[in-house]
Design goal:
- By secondary structure, the protein is α/β, with parallel strands linked by helices.
- Helix 3 packs parallel to helix 4 and helix 6 packs parallel to helix 7.
- It has eight helices and seven strands, in the order H-H-H-E-H-E-H-E-H-E-H-E-H-E-E.
- Helix 7 links the parallel strand 4 and strand 5.
- The chain binds 3,4-dihydroxybenzoic acid (DHB) and magnesium ion.
- The site of magnesium ion has 4 residues, from loops.
C-alpha cells in the first residue's frame, strides 16, 4: 500500500521535490521491514508538512500519531531555533523504534519531545502544562492517529491552537469513503462520523480558512484566522 505509487501525480512530486536523505530512507526501510509501510505519510506529504512548518514557524508543534517518526523527521527539520515538536505515539514498540531511528539524525534531537501514551490522555497532560505555563500554546497540530478519534483531536486542537496557527489532518478522505470511492478498505461508523465532523467543522468554522489538499489520502489544512 505504498504512498509512492498511488498516482502518477504523487510519483512525480516525490521524485522531483521530496528527496529523502539517508535518515528518512532508513525509517522508510524499517517500516517496510516490519510490514508497516504505507501507514506512514508519503515523501511528498512529509515534504509538504515541512513546507508548512517553514511558513508557520510554530513555537510548539504537536503530532498525534508518530508511528516510526517518518513525518516527525520531515517536520523537525524545518523547526526554527528554540521551537519544539511534541510527537505522541500510543504503541510502545513504535515509540521506541521512532526514538531509536530519529536519534540517528543528531541535528534534530533537542527539538523533539516524544510522548508514549493514548492521544487524548497525552493531550490532557499537555493542557495542564500549558495552563502551568510550562509550554506555550501550540501553533501547529498534525493529526494522524486513530480515525474514530479525529473528532476529539479536532475539538482539542481548535480549543488550543493559536491565532495564525495551522491544523492538519491526514487521511481525511478516509480511505476513499468520504468521496464515495471503494478502495476495498473497511471502516467503522465511528470513523466515518468522526471524519465527516473533522472536515465539515473546519469547513464551516468562521475563524478558520480550510481546504483539503487532494493527495490520494486527503490532507485537510486549516488556518486559524481569529
Ligand atoms: C492507515 C492509517 C494512516 O494514518 C494512513 O496514513 C494510512 C493507513 C491505516 O490505519 O490503515
Ligand atoms: Mg496517515
Amino acid at each position: 500500500m505504498s504512498r509512492d505509487t498511488n498516482s502518477k501525480v504523487e510519483a512525480y512530486i516525490n521524485s522531483t521535490f521530496a528527496h529523502e536523505d539517508k535518515h528518512l530512507k532508513n525509517i522508510a526501510e524499517a517500516l517496510r521491514k516490519d510490514d508497516k509501510f504505507g501507514i506512514n505519510v508519503g515523501a511528498g506529504e512529509g515534504q509538504f508538512l515541512q513546507f508548512l512548518i517553514g511558513l508557520v514557524k510554530p513555537k510548539l508543534a504537536i503530532e498525534i500519531g508518530m508511528l516510526y517518526g517518518y513525518s516527525t523527521l520531515w517536520m523537525a527539520r524545518a523547526l526554527s531555533e528554540g521551537a519544539k515538536l511534541i510527537s505522541i505515539e500510543v504503541d510502545v514498540d513504535n515509540y521506541k523504534k521512532a526514538k531509536e531511528l530519529i536519534s540517528q539524525d543528531t541535528s534534530v534531537g533537542s527539538r523533539l519531545d516524544f510522548r508514549n501514551g493514548n492521544g487524548l490522555d497525552v493531550l490532557a497532560q499537555i493542557s495542564k502544562e500549558i495552563s502551568a505555563q510550562k509550554l506555550p500554546r501550540p501553533d501547529f497540530i498534525f493529526v494522524d492517529a486513530d480515525k474514530a478519534n479525529y473528532r476529539n483531536y479536532l475539538d482539542w486542537a481548535m480549543e488550543h491552537i493559536r491565532v495564525g496557527g495551522v491544523i492538519v489532518g491526514d487521511n481525511t478522505f478516509l480511505f476513499g469513503h468520504m468521496i464515495g470511492e471503494d478502495r476495498g478498505e473497511k471502516t467503522s461508523v465511528a470513523a466515518l462520523e468522526s471524519m465527516r465532523y473533522f472536515n465539515e467543522t473546519l469547513a464551516n468554522a468562521k475563524n478558520f480558512r480550510a481546504t483539503i489538499i487532494p493527495t490520494y489520502e486527503g490532507m485537510t489544512v486549516a488556518h486559524r484566522l481569529s
